Amino acid sequence: MTKLKLKHPIAVGALIGAVSIAAILSGLTALTSPSPKTWDWLEDTYWYVRPQGLPNMVYDAVTDTAQPSIGQTVYHIRQCRYGYFVGECTVQIMGNDQIQCRQMIGTVTPEGQVLLTFLAMDGEKVQLSINAIGVMRRERGEWTMENQMASPGPDDPTTFVAHWAYMFQVDESDPHWNSLPFARVSVPDFLGRCER
Q1: What is the mean pLDDT of residues 159-169?
Q2: What architecture does CATH give domain 40-192?
């Protein structure tokens, strides 16, 4: 039997070690890489805007003026599977007692990029469709949905509301569940203002 003589045994050993480490790291990356099921926990969760996120801007396209305003938004994500979700959204803007009721459909990538579409329905027809973008982000140790959008005002098609906020998850253990900032009603009562 012939023995194989290596000219550089240390270099070969280092190469084998490097390949082994790369294989291990590749395996660990595969185990920790986000998957489409990463966000399935969003199912049956509620989201709202905390006081620091209430400000927005109302723009009048006719007069070319912008005014600061505040408003509350609440989402209920009813279903979430493989990065796709549906739910409902209720919005109230200062100076307007009218509640905006929207159905919501969205996607969230394994890495946490969010696309939301809000649908205003008129019977069985979509009256208005509004898109928003966002990202799932850790803020103060909690998952938030950092979203931004601009949408037509509820009463006047020449008025627009621009808004960004960290949407925080809320449940019955949170004091804001029973008294939402700005709206001063409970989450169920706020969502209940819309007939679905």
Answers
A1: 95
A2: Beta Barrel (2.40)
pLDDT above 70 for 17: no
Q: In the chain, what are the domain boundaries?
A: 7-34, 40-192
- Residue 75 contacts residue 104 (beta carbons within 8 Å): yes
How far, in Å, CA of 99 to CA of 77, rounded? 19
Instruction: Give me the amino acid identity at 72.
Output: Q
CA distance 187 to 172: 9
| CB of 141 closer than 8 Å to CB of 155 | no
- Which contiguous run of DSSP H or E holds residue 169? strand 159-170
Which backbone phi and psi does 177 adopt, to 5 degrees?
-60, -40
Residue 98: DSSP 8-state: P
34-89 pLDDT per residue, tens = 898 999 999 999 999 999 999 999 999 999 999 999 999 999 999 999 999 999 99
